[in-house]
Amino acid sequence: MGFIEKNKALCMLSVLINTHLLQAATKFDVQRYFYSSSACVYNAHKQESFEAPSLKEEDAYPALAEDGYGWEKLFSERMCRHFREDFNLYTRVARFHNVYGPWGTWFGGREKAPAAICRKVIESKLTGKREIEIWGTGEQTRSFMYIDDCIRGVQLIMNSEILEPINLGSSEAVSINQLVDLVEDIAGVKLRRKYDLNAPRGVNGRSSDNTLIKKLLNWEPSVPLRKGLEKTYAWIYDQYMAQARKPVPASSVPEPGISPVVGVRYQSGA
Fold it and tell me: Can you give the chain as a three-state secondary structure string?
């Protein structure tokens, strides 16, 4: 969210990727085309409550998407539709809801909340600082989908007759504070919480309504958040420790925004 809110123009430019790929797919007779959209396409007025409103596919209209990133995703959804209608290109579109898991970005400013919180908890535990910074009040609610569920969902949607964009996300919603609780429990540590009320935090509440995907595919993402976080935490811990073992010049002084343990630059928060 930090990157999205501070780089709206760059997010909008991503529309060129989908434009060029759709043109190339048509030119070279590509058999199937999948577009990963986002829950950020949904109308912001439907996400003002902290009660994690479950968003149905029709809630994308009337349009009031996330400024920049969300509008680019919504526009690209329509492009996929029109290339299907005008050029008979086989297109499928899924709206991802916060994908996380091993092999995902875990530092640098573009990581999702689960990875950022795992990293922060690991760092706080290893440095003995025993404090964690949370963006906003921590009451914001989200649902998070483990990568295995995402992959399975993409496969099912690609081989289905579902022509319109469909939710692909977990319906297990938690607050950011609850997400921190889970990671603390996994790490066996309890941290003081420092809330940055001026940091980017996105909408107040968002979760995936899976009524349609259950109806059409008799399936929905089902990996429990706790189970997915355990695997994610273990993987990020290993990555963190591997970075810590890399030699760092004794004379080097960590700059602001650089971990004193691993020596890698990141934007704290996310």
Answer: CHHHHHCHHHHHHCHHHHHHHHHHHHHCCCCCEEEEEEHHHCCHHHHCCCCCCEECHHHHCCCCCCCCHHHHHHHHHHHHHHHHHHHCCCEEEEEECCEECCCCCCCCCCCCHHHHHHHHHHHHHHHCCCEEEEECCCCCEEECEEHHHHHHHHHHHHCCCCCCCEEECCCCEEEHHHHHHHHHHHHCCCCEEEEECCCCCCCCECEECCHHHHHHHCCCCCCCHHHHHHHHHHHHHHHHHHHHCCCCCCCCCCCCCECCCCCCECCCCC
Domain edges within the chain? 2-244
Catalytic annotation, residues: 69
Please name the fold of domain 2-244.
Answer: Rossmann fold (3.40.50)
How confident is the prediction along the chain (270 residues), in pLDDT tens digits per residue? Answer: 788 888 999 999 999 999 999 999 999 999 999 999 999 999 999 999 988 679 999 999 999 999 999 999 999 999 999 999 999 999 999 999 999 999 999 999 889 999 999 999 999 999 999 999 999 999 999 999 999 999 999 999 999 999 999 999 999 999 999 999 999 999 999 999 999 999 888 899 999 999 999 999 999 999 999 999 999 999 999 999 998 887 755 444 444 444 444 444 333 333
